[in-house]
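Notes from the pairing session

We agreed to fold both candidates in a single pass and log them together. This is the raw record for the first candidate, unedited. Please don't reformat it; downstream parsing expects exactly this layout.

Candidate A
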Amino acid sequence: MDKVHHLLETLRNHWAQLLHNHPHNLPPEADTFSGRIHRGNNAQHLPYVLLDFPRYITPSQFFFFRTMIWIGKSIVQTLYLTHHYTPWLHRHYPKLLSLKMNWIPHHHIWNPAQTGQPLPPSPSTLTRSKPTTHTWAFRITYPIHQVLLPHPLTQTFKNLFLHNQTTSQSSRNVNGNTNHERTGRP
C-alpha cells in the first residue's frame, strides 16, 4: 500500500506541475496544488487508495477528478461534477467523448465497480435530466494488469484538463475569464 500511496503522490505532484506550467480549463476555485490522497480497505472487500486531484468540494457543489487504484482489481479514473458545472460540461463534452469515458447513472456514481454506459452524442441529453439527478460522473476503468503506470493516467488527465495546441489563446474558463487573465501567464 505504501508503494501505491507513493505512486499517487508522484502523480499528484506531476499533475500539479503540469497545471502550473500550462493553460488549463479547470474552474478557478479548484484546488490545483494539493488534492487529497486517502486509503480504504473495503471496496467489495478489497483495499484501495484514492487521489482526488484537482478538486473543489462544498456541501452543495463539487468538481473533482478521482484516480482510484483498487488493489488487485482495476484502476478507475472518474470526473465528478454537479449541475453548477453544466457550462463546463457542455464546453468540454467533446473531450469526454474522445476519451471514450462512460457516463455513470446518478444512483451508481459512488460505486467504483460500475463501468457505466457510453456517452450520448450530445450533453443536452444528460443536462435535461430531473433536478435530483444533477450530479454527473464520467469514468474510465483500466484492468490493473493492462496498465503500465503512470502513462495512461497522465494522458487522460492531460487530455481532459490541459489546452492542446489548437485551442485558442483566449479560451474561456467556467466563469468566462480567459485562463491568461486568471493565471497572469501570457
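Candidate B (folded immediately after A)
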Amino acid sequence: MNIWTGLLFLGGFIATPAALAAVTGEPEADTTSPKDIVRHFLEEVRAGKAPEKSSKFLASKVLAHQMNSEIETTVSRDPEDYAAHIKDFRRIYGDFDFEVTELLADGDRVYARWKQTGCHVGPSDGAAPSGLPVIEIASAVYRVEAGKIAEYWIQIDRKGTEIQFETNAINTNRKISCVR
C-alpha cells in the first residue's frame, strides 16, 4: 500500500490517480505500466466485453499496421471506430471467447498472442454464417505512449480462418455445438 492509498483508507480525502484506481479497480491511464494497459485493453475491449471503453485505452489516433495477404497496410483508427470494429466481431462470431495466451513487455512495447473462439453467426468476407465454431489465432505488438495505446502491429492467421469458413460451408450438416 502506498502513502496515498493509505491516506484514503485512513479517512483522508486525497483523490490521487493511484487512490482512485485502488477504489474503483480501474487502471490509471498515466501511471499504469504498458503491460497492464494492454492487458486491461485486451480483457475489456478486444475481448468484446466493453468495446465502448476503447477511449480509455486508445490514443485519439492509433496507427494499426496490418498484414493482409502478405501486404503490409497501415490504417489510422480512433477509439470510436475501434469499438465499431469489435462490435463487428460480435456480429460475426457472437459472444466469442477470448484468451490471451502470451503477454510480454519491453519498455513501451507489449507483445500479445491470443485465441478467439466463436460461432460463425454473421456473414464475413463473403462467407455465409454456418453456425459452426471458428477459431482465430493472432498476435500483436502494442506501443504505449502517455498511458495509451498509440500504435500496433498485428498478424492474424487469416488463411486459417478462411479455411474454417470454407470447411464449415461444406459441412453445415455437422452436429457440432457452438456452446462454449
